[in-house]
Amino acid sequence: MGQFSDDGRWWWDGRTWVATAQIVLPQLPITEFERSGRLARARADLANGRRAFWSWVVLLGGNIPGLMPVNRRGFREYRTWTIEQLALATDLLLGPGETMVAGEVSSYDYWDNWTRNLAVAVTAAHVIVFRIDHRDGQPRWIAMAARMTDVTMERVTVLFGLMYQALRVTGPTGRWDILGFQAHKFDPQPVIDAWRKGVGAVAGA
User: Fold this and answer.
1) How far apart are CA 199 and CA 194, in angstroms?
2) What SS3 state is found at 46?
3) pLDDT of 169 higher than 90
4) What CA dihedral angle connects 26, 29, 31 and 36, to 10 degrees?
5) Less Cβ around it within 10 Å: N or C end of the chain?
6) Model pLDDT, residue 56
7) HSE on the CB side for 183, CA within 13 Å?
8) What residue segments make up the domains of the chain, in order of their start?
9) What does the DSSP 8-state code read for residue 29?
10) 201-to-99, 118, 120, 124, 140 alpha-carbon distances in Å
11) For residue 115, is it left (φ>0), alpha (ψ between -120 and 50) or beta?
């Protein structure tokens, strides 16, 4: 069973210590989301949204985050898929005894598309920030792994989150902003609540 060192910089894979920054997650098992065919439909929605983007550019003269069709179509489904993958990746790293209790994935506007680059998972004892492989959409690398008490989290918003919001995760090795739009069902509050509960449990132990 895997585990992280106290400082989060090393991971025990059952045989040897591996630098956290050098972890490359293998291909994860197929999720229920993929098995149901919903991923294929989400990819089709994304392609349709990209085509619709150019029509909106002509009408509105620019890309307005959260309002353009491309900022809405498909991502909610991708979010569901990625959160399922986060749970699998967390199990791979820490085993079934320390499962993910909350997670969220980034979504940010990229001209005629949106993309994902970061995701965060909270367990009973750790916070893990994953970097996502843009080639296949899977959480692939670890940007940060840290004990609950070594991390802070806050929600950052612009115009009450209508135009921009982020879950800001700060740990011993850096700071990461998990970006998202309300139109994508992005909701950092459950992650923040899980982190606070974990910190409180450690403090009360």
Assistant:
1) 9
2) helix
3) yes
4) 130
5) C
6) 56
7) 19
8) 3-204
9) P
10) 16, 27, 20, 9, 30
11) beta
Q: What is the pLDDT of residues 22-79, one digit of tens each?
A: 999 999 999 888 888 877 777 776 666 565 555 555 565 554 544 444 445 567 777 8
Q: What is the CATH number of domain 3-204?
A: 2.30.29.30
Residues 6+ apart with CB under 8 A from 26: 92
Give the 3-state secondary structure of residue 147.
strand
Count CB neighbours of 164 within 10 A.
17
Strands (DSSP E) found in 2-90: 3-4, 10-12, 17-19
3-state secondary structure of 21: helix
Residue 111 has a pLDDT of 44
Q: Report in angstroms the alpha-carbon separations of 38 from 155, 159, 181.
A: 30, 32, 21
The pTM for the full model equals: 0.83
- Give CA 73 to chain center in angstroms: 18
At residue 27, the pLDDT reads 93
Residue 168 Cα distances to 64, 177, 178, angstroms: 23, 4, 6
User: Which value, in Å, is the radius of gyration of the alpha carbons in the chain?
Assistant: 18
Helix (H, G, I), strand (E, B) or coil at 71: helix
Residue 42, H or E segment: helix 38-60
